Amino acid sequence: MDIQVARVYAHRPHDTHTAILVDRLWPRGMAKADLVGVPWLKDIAPSDDLRHWFGHEPPKWSEFRRRYFHELDANPEPVAELRKHARHGPITLLFAAHDEAHNNAVALREYLLR
């Protein structure tokens, strides 16, 4: 499975990769017209409670991943939908967070590849 991650603000359409927005909230300052044709799987994102608890604090990363993986295990429908996209070819998971190493798309990629 070929899964990349990219910050939505830096994303440029790629001929061979299907881009998928995986954040719960729409990216600030991004017009819907900027992401025409990009599926938005907000139900695969961490819950609001988990997102607020994590707050993009790197010391919480390990525990965030554990809790997020538990949420994903309990919510198989969006995971199945994302895997369906991945079976058709390479995908890029789009996220809005400033921290490119500690965010839900990075954790989601890890979850899908395990």
Can you walk through the features of this model?
The chain has 114 residues and is of the alpha/beta class. It is built from four helices and three strands, in the order E-E-H-H-H-E-H. It has helices at 48-54, 61-74, 76-87, 104-113, and strands at residues 3-7, 18-21, 91-95. It has a three-stranded parallel β-sheet with strand order 1-3-2, with helices on one face. The model has no long low-confidence stretch (mean pLDDT 93).
In a few lines, what is going on in this structure?
By secondary structure, the protein is an alpha/beta fold.
Amount of helix: 25-40%
Order of helices and strands: EEHHHEH
The largest sheet has its strands arranged as: 1-3-2
User: How many strand segments?
Assistant: 3
Radius of gyration: 13 Å
Structural class by SSE content: alpha/beta
Sheet-strand content, in percent, reads 5-15%
Give the overall shape.
globular
- Residue ranges: pLDDT <50 for 5 or more in a row? none
- How far apart the termini lie comes to 11 Å
What does the largest sheet look like? 3 strands, parallel
Mean pLDDT over all positions: 93
Tally of separate helices: 4
Which key features would you list for this structure?
114 residues; 12% strand; globular
Layout of helices and strands:
Blueprint: E1 3-7, E2 18-21, H1 48-54, H2 61-74, H3 76-87, E3 91-95, H4 104-113
